[in-house]
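Key result, reporting period 2: structure in, sequence out.
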């Protein structure tokens, strides 16, 4: 599942069905003149229609606040009846101008490390139950949110001011779609995706010594064993109650 941002002011989304991950489908949309060149406008465009559960990743709490303020001003969002009780409580307990309260009143959740834990948990429950359809979050998307959405918008490709790698990118993108719930997940990337990385794990087969775990040695082919390891394996086999014996 992937997506890419193109400088031609058109967003193209490539996604695959879970049944056949090798078959890719494409769709695209153009921005309005007011939205072109404006990542906030592109995020707003990607959220239309707003009834699809959507997670929006931002690099920091200030960026999340900035995007929420933009959406409240330009998003044409009505008030959400499902969050009315929570909003009334927040206004009693917190400053009325708090952006989280204003956003929640219009069906948008904000989730990051500066949000009190109990409110974070409420936002996740409201999202999972369908009471709200949008969560704007930071790295809590991969560290603290155990949920998935139909759409994921990667608004930034950084954690704070540090660009993230392909592994983190795919970890975030992997929140889009789930079998038996969202057959197709879409990922919108508003910056160039990080390049794919070839990852390899090197096992120190050639660094065998008397401290090499026996469980590892027993999994190696004979030609991969160092002389000291080969003797250790022979000793283990000789003493093992499971050693091979011919039938009488």
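The corresponding designed sequence is given below.
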């Amino acid at each position: 599942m992937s997506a890419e941002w193109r400088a031609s002011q058109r967003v193209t989304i490539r996604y695959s069905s879970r049944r056949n991950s090798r078959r890719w489908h494409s769709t695209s949309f153009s921005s309005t003149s007011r939205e072109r060149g404006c990542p906030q406008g592109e995020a707003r465009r990607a959220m239309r229609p707003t009834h699809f559960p959507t997670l929006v990743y931002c690099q920091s709490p200030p960026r999340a606040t900035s995007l929420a303020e933009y959406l409240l001003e330009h998003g044409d969002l009505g008030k959400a009846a499902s969050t009315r009780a929570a909003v009334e409580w927040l206004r009693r307990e917190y400053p009325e101008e708090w952006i989280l309260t204003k956003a929640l009143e219009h069906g948008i959740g904000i989730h990051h490390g500066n949000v009190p834990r109990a409110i974070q948990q409420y936002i996740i429950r409201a999202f999972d139950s369908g009471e709200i359809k949008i969560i704007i979050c930071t790295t809590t998307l991969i560290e603290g949110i155990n949920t998935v959405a139909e759409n994921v918008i990667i608004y930034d490709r950084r954690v704070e001011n540090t660009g993230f790698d392909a592994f983190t990118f795919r970890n975030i993108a992997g929140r889009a779609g789930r079998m038996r719930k969202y057959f197709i997940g879409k990922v919108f990337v508003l910056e160039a995706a990080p390049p794919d990385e070839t990852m390899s794990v090197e096992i120190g087969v050639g660094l065998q010594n008397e401290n090499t775990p026996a469980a590892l040695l027993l999994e190696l082919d004979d030609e991969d064993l160092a002389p000291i390891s080969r003797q250790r394996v022979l000793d283990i086999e000789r003493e093992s109650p499971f050693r091979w014996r011919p039938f009488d």
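The two ends are 59 Å apart (CA to CA). Strands lie at 2-6, 10-16, 24-30, 54-57, 108-111, 134-137, 151-154, 158-159, 162-163, 186-189. This case is discussed further under Risks and Mitigation.
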